[in-house]
Amino acid sequence: MIEVRFHGRGGQGTVVASIILAKALFESGFYVQSFPLFGVERRGAPVEAYLRWDSKKILVRTNVYNPNHVVVMDATLLQNIDITSGLKPGGWILLNMPQGELNVNFPGYRVALVDATQIARKHGLGTRTHPIVNTAMVGAFARVFGVPDLSALKRVIMEEIPVKPDKNVDAAKEAFEEVSFIDEVKAIG
C-alpha cells in the first residue's frame, strides 16, 4: 500500500487534488482512499489531505501517520510545518516550487519540483494572487509516481472540474512535462 500526505493552503485545491487522483487511480484499477484533515477552514489556512492506493483491498481506516511520499502545494509551508514528519526514508517530496529556488536540505529523501503556480497562472486558473494549482500538481504527481495514467487523469479532471476543464487538463499535461528531479539537495550556506 502506498500512502501520500498532501500539504496545502485553503483555496489551492489540495483536497480536490487528492480526490482527482483517487478517482483516476480507481479508474486505473487500484483500490483507493482519499480524505482531508481540516484545521481552521478559511482561505490560506494550512490543509492536509491523504491518499492511499493498493492493488488489493485497503482495510486501514486511520489518518496517514507515516506516508511513503509527500506533496507540497505551497512552498511557504516549509517555513512553518515539518513536511518530513513521519515520512518514510527514501520517499518522494513533490514541491510546488520553481527549479533553482530550493534552499532546504532533505537528506534521505528524493525531491521533485514543478512550478505549478506559474503553470496555473499561465492557464488562467484562479487569480494572479491566488492561483489554483491542484490540476498542475496532479499532472506532476502522475509523472513522479508513474500513476495514474494520463488518459484517466484527463477524464477525471473533465468530470470533476466544472470551471475551465480544458485549461485544467492543459495545466496537468504541462506540469507532467515540466517536473524537475533533484539528484542531490544542497544544504543552506
Protein described:
- With 189 residues, this protein is α/β, with parallel strands linked by helices.
- It has a single domain (2-182), classed as Pyruvate-ferredoxin Oxidoreductase, domain 3 (3-Layer(aba) Sandwich).
- 31% of the residues lie in helices and 22% in strands.
- The chain has helices spanning 14-27, 116-122, 134-145, 150-160, 165-178; strands at residues 2-9, 31-38, 46-54, 69-72, 92-96, 110-114, 180-182.
- The protein has a seven-stranded mixed sheet, covered by helices on one side.
- α1 (14-27) packs across α4 and α3 (134-145) crosses α5 (165-178).
Q: How is this fold's topology laid out?
A:
Layout lengths: L1 E8 L4 H14 L3 E8 L7 E9 L14 E4 L19 E5 L13 E5 L1 H7 L11 H12 L4 H11 L4 H14 L1 E3 L7
Keywords:
189 residues, seven-stranded mixed sheet, Pyruvate-ferredoxin Oxidoreductase, domain 3, 31% helix, alpha/beta
